[in-house]
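Usage example:
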Amino acid sequence: MAYERKTGGGAPRRRFGRRKVCRFCADRGLKIDYKEINTLNIFVSERGKIVPRRISGNCSEHQRKVTEAIKRARNIALIPFSTAHSVD
Amino acid sequence: MRSYETMFIVHPDTGGDQFTAVLDKFKGILADQNATMLKVEEWGSRRLAYPIQKQGRGTFVIFFYEATAAAVSEYERRMRLDETIMRYQTVRYEPGSQVAPAAPAEAGEAAEVAEEEEAD
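Running the assembly step on the lines above writes:
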């Protein structure tokens, strides 16, 4: 009945380019804080979305902290929720 | 007693005298609750990322202070009642390198400990 599962079936996963390094691990001086908009803006797409870990290259711990900081910054209107708003 | 930071946005139409009056009022409220002010940061008028109460700009102020949980909730209640405060956000404040210069000396030591913890 049940087929035996092939181990690691399919073509081997190809990786292009080098593995990204979490920039908060690489640079200890870099702080994650909701007030540091310039740092947070690196991890926000043009539409205002939070950039996923597979693209940003952050480690899980720092990605969590970045997410938290971005959400705090959004609440206090430092970072937009989306680009839909037109101010002035 | 814990350290907190509260960032709040003052309505852009509050002029110079009125603005300082608002700040003094909230400093007074914190002092009444036996909170100790560590630092006050004024960012001045900034563009908001999205309109709040139909305003595109706002004046950002951050208070860093030590207070009890009850003091914080009373302080936030008073902010909600004040119409010149467009928005506020209170966060636990861990003295870090960014704020250390103007904070008292003991905050600097705490920052070093925090950095060591992060290094592990």
